[in-house]
Design brief:
By secondary structure, the protein is of the alpha+beta class. Helices cover about 55% and strands about 15% of the residues. It has 14 helices and twelve strands. The chain is elongated, with a radius of gyration of 33 Å.
Length: about 425
């Protein structure tokens, strides 16, 4: 078989067969080309969306949830609806003591400040935090460092700002570390700059030590937000339900009140998006393979017509001693060749489309995908599928050709 594929006459016959009706050959190849192009483009786009999700959440413990206080929507135990729920540090300790599967509970305080530097002033949203938060939801630093335990213990007036904050109050390229920014109450020394990441909620522009926020805003034991991470062996949705039930009991909230405690479950969202990506990839393969099969069937149909047109030629070859195996082999090689040529062109076209998508839609912080691409393994698998389909569909016209009797073929006009 290898020797046959290396022979010049084999490929000359393939070229002659395709050249007899160029338009028909091109139109036949379009189906396979389109199927592979669609498969590569959709798989690459799905990968780009996955890359974007992984990049945004790479520093977050995915088995995490966030809980912050809201207002009651159902009267309960003598309390009217609309009561503001205030979470506190005692709640943090009770969650640690009573909820199975909880690894960490990290409280934070949300603060609003008008900050200025030189003649520049702007309003910012930030939080008072503990160093542990940066371990569970790590920030990518551009300059400097994050809040540490000494900053918290000593209630230091230090601040870690976002890159958006930096752009508003500092000159481009200026090193902000050690510089001061002022609020109405106090001046803060900048110790770090982090890349801002927005998950759809309020954007965090800065972090200060938790104890500093407590002191400046007289917050006592109040907290606005808790980040909870669960042990991987426990179901994060069950931990979420257990914590909310505990907090409802502590704060006198109706069991069916879903507005008094707000937040989101990062683990649940991660599972939802993972399921979406798996479904998208399945749909991509289904659509791509279905389109490929339709294109390959078109190749089979055209080869059947080609066999009919070459009946006399086949009869002559049979009369000169060509075996059915040799005839069948030649037709299959033609089928696979057309499929592979179309497939390679489809892969190249799909790759070019992904490069264009990457340039137009996958750049910048707000892009919904990053580096849309397909692996070499996926490309190889696509080529194997094309080869297998081309071989199988080639068997139909090949069998038709071997059924031609030499004496009948020679009588064919």
């Amino acid at each position: 078989m290898v020797k046959f594929l290396l022979e010049k006459d084999t490929w000359q016959e393939v070229i002659d067969s395709l050249s007899k009706n160029k338009l028909r050959s091109i139109l036949t190849m379009v189906g396979v080309w389109w199927g592979i192009l669609l498969l590569i483009a959709l798989l690459g786009s799905a990968k780009g969306i996955e890359n974007n999700f992984n990049a945004r959440f790479k520093n977050y413990a995915t088995n995490s949830l966030f809980i912050f206080s809201g207002r009651t929507s159902i009267p309960f135990k003598g309390y009217q609806e609309g009561r503001r729920i205030k979470l506190n540090l005692n709640d943090v300790e009770r969650i640690k003591e009573n909820i199975s599967g909880v690894e960490y509970v990290v409280p934070s305080i949300q603060v609003q400040m008008t900050l200025s530097r030189n003649t520049l002033t702007s309003n910012f949203t930030g939080r008072g935090e503990f160093p542990l938060l940066d371990i569970l939801a790590k920030k990518d630093l551009v300059w400097g460092r994050n809040i540490n335990q000494q900053d918290v213990d000593e209630q230091k007036k230090v601040i870690v700002i976002s890159d958006d904050f930096y752009k508003q109050l500092f000159e481009k390229g200026e090193n902000p570390i050690g510089k001061m920014v002022k609020s109405e109450k106090v001046s803060f020394k900048v110790i770090g700059v982090f890349e801002a990441v927005n998950f759809g909620g309020p954007q965090i522009d800065f972090d200060i030590p938790f104890t500093t926020a407590q002191q400046l805003y007289n917050r006592g034991n109040d907290v606005d937000l808790m980040m909870i991470t669960g042990n991987p062996s426990f179901e994060i949705n069950q931990i979420d339900a257990d914590i909310k039930l505990l907090l409802k009991n502590i704060h006198g909230i109706h069991p069916d009140d879903n507005r008094a405690l707000n937040g989101f479950n990062l683990g649940d969202r991660f599972e939802q998006l993972t399921g979406f990506l798996i479904g998208m990839q399945f749909l991509t393969w289904f659509v791509g393979i279905a389109t490929l099969i339709a294109g390959v069937f078109a190749i089979g149909g055209i080869l059947l017509i080609s066999v009919k047109e070459r009946t006399k030629e086949i009869g002559v070859r049979r009369a000169l001693g060509a075996t059915p195996y040799l005839i069948k082999r030649q037709i299959i090689v033609e089928s696979v060749s057309i499929s592979l040529i179309s497939g390679v062109l489809g892969i190249i076209s799909g790759g070019l489309i992904l490069m264009l998508v990457n340039k137009l839609a996958a750049q910048g912080e707000d892009a919904f995908m990053r580096n849309p691409s397909v692996s070499n393994g996926m490309v190889l698998l696509a080529l194997i599928i094309i080869t297998v389909l081309g071989t199988l569909i080639g068997l139909i016209p090949a069998t038709k050709a071997t059924n031609v009797k030499p004496i009948d073929a020679l009588r064919e006009e």
